[in-house]
Design a protein that fits this description.
- The protein has 255 residues and is of the alpha+beta class.
- 26% of the residues lie in helices and 20% in strands.
- The chain has 2 domains: 67 residues, Orthogonal Bundle (434 Repressor (Amino-terminal Domain)); 175 residues, Umud Fragment, subunit A, CATH 2.10.109.10.
- It contains 8 helices and 10 strands.
- Strands 2-1-3-4-10 form a 5-stranded mixed β-sheet. A 5-stranded antiparallel β-sheet has the order 8-7-6-5-9.
- The longest helix is centred in the N-terminal third of the chain and has 17 residues.
């Protein structure tokens, strides 16, 4: 929300208190130490308040910035995962770009909520590198047509994928098995096998009809900075047994 909108909401709140005879412009001037004309000009939209001035008004009126924000806007931007008290855990479906760049998934970026068995999620081994403690661990994304076909037959276009964002290491999850990762490529997720070659990441498809990609890493970064999650992405098309039977299976099917 912009500063001007916050000031408009502050005016509205102050006028409500004046209309309810809880406040007067003179009393507000005395509380803040401002001239009455200054307060009058603000209330009548003839001038704004500085950041310091607005903070002083909020303080004397026992308000916070949150009181000036529309509750719908707060809810839209809130992270929405309360602790679950049953055998299932809520996991959020979001876009690849949000999964790649946002540690916490805000409600406005949630497409669906699916329930996974806690026992299944707890069996998945984490291997975090760098600061991943603040990242919501499990999220879901959908593979688009190109990403799905590049990893065919391991993935299909439209497949819903479970990402473990606390596994951003190139260490093999299982001996002799290649890890499949979601990689942050220019702010979006691409799904590939990954190898490190000097200052480059080699992104290999499973489907040999698609080309190998070489991605240059930025200075002072490591492979872990680009790995959104892995190491063994799960397609819900073939692993519904780990899901709660409700909501209906259609929610876990490819689009």
């Amino acid at each position: 929300m912009k500063f001007r909108a916050l000031q408009d909401n502050l005016r509205k709140t102050l006028w409500e208190r004046i209309d309810q005879h809880e406040l007067t412009g003179l009393h507000l001037a005395e509380q803040t130490g401002f001239k009455q004309a200054h307060i009058s000009n603000f209330l009548n939209r003839k001038r704004g308040l500085s950041l310091e001035g607005m903070d002083k008004v909020l303080n004397v009126q026992h308000l916070s910035v949150l009181d000036l924000i529309d509750p719908a806007e707060v809810n839209k931007r809130a992270s929405i995962l309360p602790p679950s008290d049953d055998e299932f855990e809520n996991v959020l479906l979001t876009t690849g770009s949000i999964a790649a760049t946002e540690p916490m998934i805000m409600s406005m970026n949630v497409k669906e909520v699916l329930k996974f068995k806690k026992s299944f999620l707890q069996r998945l081994r984490a291997e975090p590198e760098g600061d991943r403690d603040s990242w919501e661990r499990f999220v879901l994304i959908k593979a688009d047509a190109r990403e799905g076909m590049s990893m065919y037959p391991r993935l299909l276009p439209g497949a819903t994928l479970l990402l473990d964002r606390h596994y951003n290491s190139l260490k093999p999850y299982r001996k002799g098995e290649s890890n499949m990762y979601a990689i942050n490529k220019q702010g979006h997720c691409t799904i590939k096998y990954v190898e490190l070659a000097g200052t480059h990441l080699v992104l290999r498809p499973h489907n040999q009809s698609y080309p190998v990609e070489i991605m240059q890493m930025e200075p002072d970064t490591s492979a872990a900075d680009y790995l959104v999650g892995g190491p063994r992405l799960r397609s819900l098309r073939v692993e519904r047994k780990m899901l709660c039977p409700l909501p209906p299976p259609a929610l876990a099917s490819p689009a």
